[in-house]
Amino acid sequence: MISYHPADWQGRDMGSFYEGFRVLGPNERISKIITKNIWSPILWERGRRASRNFRFSSFVALDFDGGVSLDDAINNIFCDLIHIIAPTRSHRMDKNGVVDDRFRVLVKLSTDTTDCARFTATARHYAKLYEADIACTDCARAFYPSLHIASMSTEGYTWDLVEADDIETKEEFLHRKATAPLSNDARIVLEHGVADNRNQTCFRVALELLRKGYTKEEAYKKVFRYVPTTHDFKESEKRKIIESAHAQKLKAPAWCR
């Protein structure tokens, strides 16, 4: 169940859509609403969009503004979940000089929630896990309609709610990243470079770093610090290894496959 605003959205700022949200009716298709109307995974008291009016949610919506490919999202990352994936209106368009895949993912929760703090904690948890936009996880969030539905499944796994106290703070995250122990293989590569099985070893170490919280750029600099760029190991190949490790890291964890 989601909510939507019936008014014409074109040429209007999101701030003008404060009240008048309706609950999706039994004869209305969620896929149609997402591509035609302002919508939200949240239901608010009296249809007034504000965190203090949070009433109910059955879904989490993640906003991807680059960094994750639409193809990976559809075929690898969210394929086993009850989901809808829909490209936004800026998908593959030049945005501040960057052309990238931009889309939203709506995933069913295993349990509905009426707790605003728990909803935010859950949305932030999955946004961090899958590297979506954390700014789009508040209890007053609504979205403009998408271009079309790229993938939809009514069968599959769901996401569990997260307790508000379980969310890692920025300080805790930075401490964990700085102190997390690395495997012997990773330490050897980071300190001396790669001797054998170059691509496979670099991929494995990059994946380990990414899973410990390093960004793609941080992982790239560490993994290839002592691995020179040559005619048979070009910059593009190095970047491809990091992207492959990143895609592997984003795949659904074992408990929701």
Brief synopsis:
The chain has 257 residues and is α+β, with helices and mostly antiparallel strands.
Question: What composes the largest sheet?
Answer: 5 strands, antiparallel
The first-to-last residue Cα distance is: 23 Å
The number of helical segments is: 8
CATH-level-4 superfamily name of the largest domain:
RepB DNA-primase, N-terminal domain
Specify the structural class. alpha+beta
Level-2 CATH architecture of the largest domain: 2-Layer Sandwich
What characteristic shape results from the CA principal axes? Answer: elongated
Stated plainly, the CATH topology of the largest domain is called Alpha-Beta Plaits
- Determine the mean pLDDT: 88
Please tell me the total number of domains: 2
The H-and-E topology, N to C, reads as EEHEEEHEEEEHEHHHHH
Q: Strands of the biggest beta sheet: in what spatial order?
A: 4-5-9-6-10
Radius of gyration: 20 Å
Strand content: 15-25%
Spans of at least 5 consecutive residues whose pLDDT stays below 50 are 252-257
Count of distinct strands: 10
Percent helix: 25-40%
**Text of the CATH class of the largest domain:** Alpha Beta
Could you explain the architecture of this structure?
Helices cover 33% and strands 18% of the residues. The protein has 8 helices and 10 strands. It has helices at residues 30-36, 70-77, 116-129, 170-179, 184-192, 198-211, 216-223, 235-250; strands spanning 3-5, 22-23, 38-40, 42-44, 54-65, 83-87, 94-95, 98-99, 102-113, 151-153. Strands 4-5-9-6-10 form a 5-stranded antiparallel β-sheet, with helices on both faces. A hairpin with a 2-residue loop joins strand 7 and strand 8 (98-99).
